[in-house]
UniProtKB/TrEMBL annotation, chains A, B:
EC number(s) from the headed UniProt entry: 2.1.1.-
A Pfam family recorded for this sequence: MTTB
Name of the protein: Methyltransferase
Swiss-Prot/TrEMBL GO biological process terms: methanogenesis; methylation
Similarity comment: family membership: Belongs to the trimethylamine methyltransferase family.
Origin organism lineage: Bacteria, Pseudomonadati, Pseudomonadota, Alphaproteobacteria, Rhodobacterales
Positions in coiled-coil regions: none
Keywords: Methyltransferase, Transferase
Region (Disordered) residue spans: 1-29
Record bears the keyword Chloroplast: no
């Protein structure tokens, strides 16, 4: 159990008055987690091997449609068969296997401060809040197209909770013009947080802008920047078997600069993927291998994170469903394939619910346990995600963060040595029918033994009713408002931020960089 | 995957019209489950052995207070040191070890119909809804002291969901006089369900009444009744280290008749148990061993289920908390001790929340995963439990049953053979950027592949809003009302039920049987 001080907590404590004596309190490191859960297999090993072989066969015999000419040239140069008319690329098994061999098994991610660094490898555990939503919602302001203000507020909430080790693009700031949006989001990430940042892959001009802004703000030389990943992107394939222009370009650009791609075929069983877990994950695996191969052909050893996000549709309506048994099993199967490759990988939780209700809680947590027992290295959409990703909820983020904190507490483990068993300090001290409130062991530990929730309320019914019968959803409103009202950004490189402003002003004047597609 | 027909479902199908052609539909056996989850250890094996040794030392050196003279006589006869003045019993390690050796490792529970039978042993998985609450609540009628009507309605809901394999005493029917209450609850269990019934241990007169009612209603000879457990009771110790009169009497009476006791020290870390997981579970283990020993001294080989229910209090207020990291870890430790003994065991989920909200959902599911990964054989309070057990909620029962159904689906597993991978029937059939809605594999499976929720709603936001923006909690009201409105009891032994009525009429006229304490 690591017990180093977190900036978040020390700041809060300072807020109580610099002269107050430091209180003994529970302090567990949520920033570098190891997955303590035993890993579950949904299929026998020989069937996993069959799925891997089928994926390789698909890449070789059925091929992948690759829309970016440069990507097709890279594949062709490596010996893949390319049909320029159909844009189909047929990738031999040997090419894929060489790429898997060169992909790093361990990725040292460098954040804006050393205590925020983390390593992605099988066994490590990283959480991200829900990402990529066009809408934001909260109980005070309702559901609306997300704005820059929403983006900034979500960023502050993400920074606040240590259990989110990575920044995600939670919502799309739709009131910021698209050719300038990456300046807005990068400035915000450089100013308001020192966690590992995210950049969208929307064409080379935006990507290189982002890399330059990051290096400028954090004072990184080109060599230092390229030596380790300092940021990441998410690459979705267009299932089935299609890699579009900005996604292929992102894979190439991030690999070229030594920055990290997280590859995520986002597939729904019964719609854009086969209806079975085995079929859908075989397709997802093939697509992930194709994308991974492109990174390694671009720059062998480039940091790349294998991944999947596979759930099912409701066959009555065609609507996406999340946190289902099939979603859980798909995570398990993907985990087995990731271990087959030996690579770090991402999975995802999430909810299809339209409000932050019991369905939303149960779906998200059910999917979360699937990811945890699958051994996922990065769990995306682990908090706040509603409507299958169309909306991120302020209250849901706060509610789900409570669950993630409890998972992080489990990562810290527990002890059962002589002091904890406490024959003399507890068990023999208390008479039959007595109580342990005042035992020596309790007195030594009462302030530090248990996790303290930020949301869950243990008041009895009478007290709770007197206080207005406020449910968790409405209490969560108070929690996020309090976090935002008291937010203080971490210490940053002032010169870097000033230089960043100069860069953004110049690039804005030059016309910015529209997204490419 | 077992796919036998469930009575619940065949009935529902008949309701659509006897002449309609049978629809292909998903049909998974939820009645006999095996736990598919890998088991997690919170402590190393040598520390578990230390905890077991410490518990044995406690029983020998510190002793247990046993309030029932007959129980003290049984312990004394076996060689335990008994101090009649203090009512303390000091149980030697050899006595406990012999009892553990004689306790059955597998318990064949006989319900009212053969398809409802199940076996309790390490690896099997049985759920019960929340139990023992003085209050009932639902969104239409509010929170109130529970009545006979509430008892009957909860019984019908418990019968409805196959995933509840055992009947629990969900609420206390407070409007039924205590000397007649066991007639009311036993009649209801015999008439409305064929699942495995529960009887309270409130003194020998009530217990023998219940045994006779069960044998009468189900037409069991004395030999048949005693040959297998046909019912069970829950035995809570009075922590720390006290066994009260009705609990000790229940252990003796159930053992004598070959019926099953589930032993449950219900301890809260920091209050009636040490503040540490290791200390609390060592105490719980000692108490469970003492109770188990009494059953085996009464009748060697009597069916007894080891158990624990340990969570923590909030040290600020002393209020009980559930679904916490400490609760999770306590379940894991208890599971390790149960495997150390080789015995089936019970654990529990539950929530401290005051309403069926996100906190309630997240606490219950978090505790549930602790039980599942601990390998609990019976998971009590797995649905419906609010306020740390003071209230059972109709809506929460429906919401939690959805999660349990999804867990049961995971028990059924998935396949990844040639048909499921579907190279020819799916993967090669669909072109890049196409869809799988009409692939051969989808057409063959669309009606059976996915779990169909009874509560979760996958409508998009617009449709959901048009339908009134009804959250899961309020939808659950419709679900339980529908179940109750359409409830049909299973086929029962009519002669047995008539004889049961005669028995109850006679015993009522004789003055019934007041509870003993």
């Amino acid at each position: 159990m690591v017990t180093s001080q977190t900036p978040e907590r020390s700041k809060r404590r300072r807020g109580r008055g610099a002269d107050a004596p430091p209180k003994p309190s529970r302090d567990v490191n949520y920033r570098q987690l190891k997955n303590p859960f035993p890993q579950m297999e949904v299929f026998p090993a020989d069937h996993i091997a069959d799925m891997h072989d089928t994926a390789l066969r698909m890449l070789q015999e059925l091929g992948v449609r690759v829309l970016l000419p440069e990507a097709r040239r890279i594949f062709a140069k490596a010996g893949a068969k390319v049909d320029e008319d159909s844009e189909m690329v047929f990738i031999g098994r040997d090419i894929v296997e060489a790429a898997v061999a060169s992909a790093p098994k361990s990725i040292a991610c460098q954040a804006g401060a050393r205590h925020r660094d983390f390593t992605l490898e099988l066994g490590s555990l990283v959480f991200q809040p829900g990402a990529g939503a066009p809408n934001a919602t909260d109980l005070e302001r309702g559901r609306r197209p997300a704005t820059g203000q929403d983006y900034l507020e979500f960023l502050k909430l993400t920074h606040h909770f240590d259990v989110f080790q990575m920044i995600s693009p939670q919502v799309e700031p739709q009131d910021v013009p698209t050719h300038l949006r990456h300046y807005f989001t990068t400035r915000a990430q450089m100013e308001l947080t020192d966690k590992f940042p995210f950049f969208f892959s929307r064409g080379t001009p935006q990507i290189t802008d982002c890399f330059e802004m990051l290096s400028t703000a954090r004072g990184l030389s080109d060599d230092v920047f390229r030596a380790n990943p300092h940021c990441y992107t998410i690459i979705n394939t267009n299932s089935p078997r299609t890699l579009d222009i900005p996604m292929a370009q992102g894979l190439i650009d991030f690999a070229r600069y030594g920055q990290m791609s997280i590859i995520t075929p986002f597939t729904l069983m019964g719609a854009m993927a086969p209806i079975t877990v085995a079929g859908a994950i075989t397709l997802s695996h093939a697509e992930a291998l194709a994308a991974l191969t492109l990174t390694q052909l671009t720059n062998p050893g480039a940091p790349v994170c294998y991944g999947t996000f596979t759930s099912n549709v409701d066959m009555k309506s065609g609507a996406p469903a999340f946190g289902t048994p099939s979603h859980f099993q798909a995570s398990l199967a993907a985990g087995q394939l990731a271990r087959h490759l030996g690579l770090p990988w991402r999975s995802a939780a999430g909810s299809a619910s339209n409000s932050n209700d019991v369905q939303a809680a149960n779906e998200n947590q059910f999917g979360l346990w699937g990811c945890l027992m699958a051994g996922a290295t990065v769990i995306i959409h682990s908090a706040g995600w509603l409507e299958g990703g169309l909306t991120v909820s302020f209250e849901k983020l706060v509610c789900d963060a409570e669950v993630l904190n409890m998972v992080a507490e489990l990562c810290a483990g527990a002890q059962a040595g002589r002091d904890e068993i406490g024959f003399d300090t507890a068990l023999a001290e208390v008479e039959p029918s007595g109580h342990f409130f005042a035992s020596s062991q309790t007195m030594a530990r009462y302030n530090t033994e248990f996790y303290q929730p930020h949301l869950h309320d243990y008041a009895n019914f009478g007290t709770w009713a007197e206080r207005g019968s406020v449910d968790a959803n409405h209490r969560a409103t108070g929690v996020w408002k309090d976090i935002l009202a008291n937010f203080e950004p971490p210490d940053q490189n002032g010169d870097g931020l000033a230089a960043l402003e100069t860069f953004i002003a110049r690039r804005t004047q030059e016309g910015g960089a529209p997204p490419e597609s």
